[in-house]
């Protein structure tokens, strides 16, 4: 059965610090997709990234970067030089090929303190 | 406007009443989904639909009914609302890829309170 674990329930860092959000997943499939979503205080869910299991290259998008390691079943998300606007709940999610659904982790609430 | 919309955005109702939450998308996505979000539980799938007239249960379907007569609409009905159904409800849609659904894009959510 597929599962996503975000062990960090809540994290607080001071602005400009780097912060890494952990995501560990479980799946028996060799083909699967991993996602990160952001939910700011306004409540909407914003898609950040989608990565398939055959692409282990790290991804960088501005201050955001993602580290995908199949050996440890992890897909961690790092924010460099954090800003107050990064304060949000971040969800990691997993979808197996051939499955219609995405399974979400319970989220990590990130507080960036000015 | 293109995208995915939900209505109403806020709803207060009483126990035992029927409530319908609406979801509309303009992308012609094949898949549509309903989730509820509660503290401590993250996002839990209620129902989903792979195409018009095709629906299936998710993790927490009890007390809910869905239909999908048109590709763009996916209403969620609480036939007899209970206090435990107080939650924030999100609708999402995604396109179809050969291996399954693509990225899900979410509506703004409906905050439902059952008194």
List descriptors:
heterodimer, A: 114 residues, mainly beta, 6-stranded mixed sheet, 4-stranded antiparallel sheet, B: 115 residues, 0% helix, globular
Largest sheet of chain B: 7 strands, mixed
Percent helix range of chain A: under 10%
Distance between the termini of chain B: 34 Å
Which class do the helix and strand fractions of chain A yield?
mainly beta
Binned, the helix content of chain B reads under 10%
Mean pLDDT reading of chain A: 94
Oligomer: heterodimer
Point out poorly predicted stretches of chain A.
Answer: none
The ordered H/E elements of chain A are EEEEEEEEEEEE
Structural class label of chain B: mainly beta
How far is the first residue's CA from the last residue's CA of chain A? 41 Å
Total E-strand runs of chain A: 12
- Greatest interface (CB-CB under 8 A), with counts per chain: A-B, 22 and 24 residues
**Helix and strand sequence of chain B:** EEEEEEEEEEEEE
Low-confidence stretches of chain B: none
Total helical elements of chain A: 0
Percent of residues in β-strands of chain A: over 45%
Q: How many strand segments of chain B?
A: 13
Strand content of chain B: over 45%
Radius of gyration of chain B: 13 Å
Largest sheet of chain A: 6 strands, mixed
Helix-strand blueprint:
The complex is a heterodimer of chains A (114) and B (115).
Chain A: E1 3-5, E2 10-14, E3 19-21, E4 24-26, E5 32-39, E6 46-52, E7 59-61, E8 64-69, E9 74-79, E10 88-96, E11 103-104, E12 108-113
Parallel strand pairs in A: 2-12
Antiparallel strand pairs in A: 1-4, 3-9, 5-6, 5-10, 7-8, 8-9, 10-11, 10-12
Chain B: E1 4-7, E2 10-13, E3 19-25, E4 31-38, E5 42-51, E6 54-57, E7 64-66, E8 76-78, E9 87-94, E10 96-97, E11 100-101, E12 105-106, E13 110-114
Parallel strand pairs in B: 2-13
Antiparallel strand pairs in B: 1-3, 3-8, 4-5, 4-9, 5-6, 7-8, 9-12, 9-13, 10-11
């Amino acid at each position: 059965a597929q599962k996503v674990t975000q062990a960090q329930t809540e994290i607080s860092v001071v602005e400009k610090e780097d912060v890494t959000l952990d995501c560990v997943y479980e799946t028996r499939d060799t083909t699967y997709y991993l996602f990160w979503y952001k939910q700011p205080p306004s409540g909407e869910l914003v898609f950040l990234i989608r990565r398939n299991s055959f692409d282990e290259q790290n991804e960088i998008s501005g201050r955001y970067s993602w580290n995908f390691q199949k050996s440890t079943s992890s897909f961690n998300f790092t924010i460099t030089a954090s800003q107050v606007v990064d304060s949000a709940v971040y969800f990691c999610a997993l979808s197996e090929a051939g499955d219609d659904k995405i399974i979400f982790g319970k989220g990590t609430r990130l507080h960036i303190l000015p | 406007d293109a995208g995915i919309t939900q209505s109403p955005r806020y709803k207060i109702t009483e126990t035992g009443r029927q409530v319908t939450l609406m979801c509309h998308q303009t992308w012609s996505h094949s898949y549509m989904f309903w989730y509820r979000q509660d503290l401590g539980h993250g996002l839990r799938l209620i129902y989903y639909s792979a195409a018009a007239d095709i629906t299936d249960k998710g993790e927490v379907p009890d007390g809910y009914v869905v239909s999908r007569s048109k590709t763009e609409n996916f209403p969620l009905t609480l036939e007899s609302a209970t206090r435990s159904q107080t939650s924030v409800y999100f609708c999402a849609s995604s396109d179809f890829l050969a291996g399954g659904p693509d990225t899900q894009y979410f509506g703004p959510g409906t905050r439902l309170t059952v008194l």
